[in-house]
Specification:
Number of domains: 1
Order of helices and strands: EEHEHHEHEEHEHEEEEEEH
Radius of gyration: 18 Å
Largest sheet: 7 strands, mixed
Number of strands: 13
Strand content: 15-25%
Structural class: alpha/beta
Strand order of the largest sheet: 1-5-6-7-8-10-9
CATH architecture: 4-Layer Sandwich
């Protein structure tokens, strides 16, 4: 079954899109079905798994985040990957199903992107488990969602090539060329960040990779000629980072419960707090011709009653409104 407002695209089935016939989004939600004001929540790196595992992930924190997000009643939740700890372990998805019951009780629309932990094992079997957990995505590794008349989402697969000439990059170009004229904001949701704080002596796997840097180069070209404003949400780094590059907002919100990762912030990072750990989520609210964005951070993961602080706040103005 497709999620609310979903519509299957006419495309060749299989792990990769070879071409796409329809110009409409893969899933389309009418404005009348969206909660008002329209709010979108983005975060990732939960690592749902057996609650006895308190090393790779913090089960208490990830449950708090799920409950908090359910209470926000967003129009959509964008998951930037690493939803399970091990994609080959079916029980990890069973834990996800159990711990996110509040989302289904609230009828939340959840749109996940593939992370590296989703494919931790035999890839065909891992994909089958992912599609079993999210059956409306069957056959898709990347897909598009239109939320009302003004917001569009491209959920990408950073495990697959984003390099020039790759099927996924061709698909992105096609989607952007075919955007409805009413769209003001386009979200690109993926796991590995195209822009992040480069760690000179850190784990190179958590620095921006050539695959995602190629995406940033593509988006730079496309943003220059698009009437919509681009926002990129990613995870992988278990922390929070915010950048503005080429007129595009790049966010890392990887504080979904996975073991926190300390970082040294570069001067390009607009988030300057030294707070750690950063268990967090980001909420975007459509207000007139702008998105008001707030990062909510768990104040103390060692408490018994969670308190959430607004640790970052910024506005994203539509290109039509700012004339750029």
């Amino acid at each position: 079954m497709l999620p609310n407002g979903g519509r299957a695209a006419l495309a060749i089935a299989g792990p990769l899109y070879l071409f796409r016939i329809a110009c409409a989004a893969d899933f389309n939600v009418d404005d009348t079905k969206l909660t008002k004001p329209i709010a979108i929540i983005a975060y990732g790196d939960m690592r749902f798994t057996d609650p006895s595992n308190i090393e790779a992930t913090n089960p208490k924190v990830r449950r708090w985040l799920v409950a908090r997000i359910a209470s926000e009643h967003p129009a959509a939740v964008l998951l930037s990957g690493d939803v399970p700890w091990h994609g080959a372990q079916k029980n990890d998805y069973a834990i996800y199903e159990k711990e996110t019951q509040a989302w289904r009780s609230e009828n939340l629309r959840v749109y996940p992107a593939l992370g590296n932990h989703e494919l931790n094992g035999n890839e065909p079997e891992c994909l089958a488990d992912w599609w079993n957990a999210f059956p409306w995505l069957h056959g898709r590794r990347w897909y598009s969602v239109q939320l009302g008349q003004r917001i569009y989402v491209l959920n990408l697969d950073s495990n697959s090539s984003l390099l020039p000439g790759a099927d996924q990059q061709k698909w992105i170009r096609h989607e952007l060329d075919a955007l409805p004229s009413s769209i003001q904001f386009v979200f690109f949701n993926l796991h590995h960040p195209p822009v992040s704080d480069y760690q000179e002596d850190g784990d190179a796997d958590h620095n921006a990779r050539p695959n995602e840097i190629a995406l940033a180069q593509l988006l730079k070209q496309c943003q220059a000629r698009s009437s919509a404003r681009f926002i990129v949400t990613a995870g992988h780094v278990h922390n929070y980072e915010r950048f503005l590059q080429d007129g595009i907002v790049y966010l890392v919100s990887g504080g979904g419960g996975a073991k926190p990762r300390p970082i040294i912030r570069t001067k390009q990072d607009l988030y300057r707090s030294s707070a750690f750990p950063n268990y967090n989520y980001v909420k975007f609210v459509l207000a007139g011709d702008e998105l008001e964005a707030t990062m909510y951070r768990l104040r103390d993961p060692n408490t018994t009653n969670p308190t959430w602080d607004e640790n970052d706040h910024f506005e994203i103005v539509s290109r039509q409104a700012d004339g750029k």
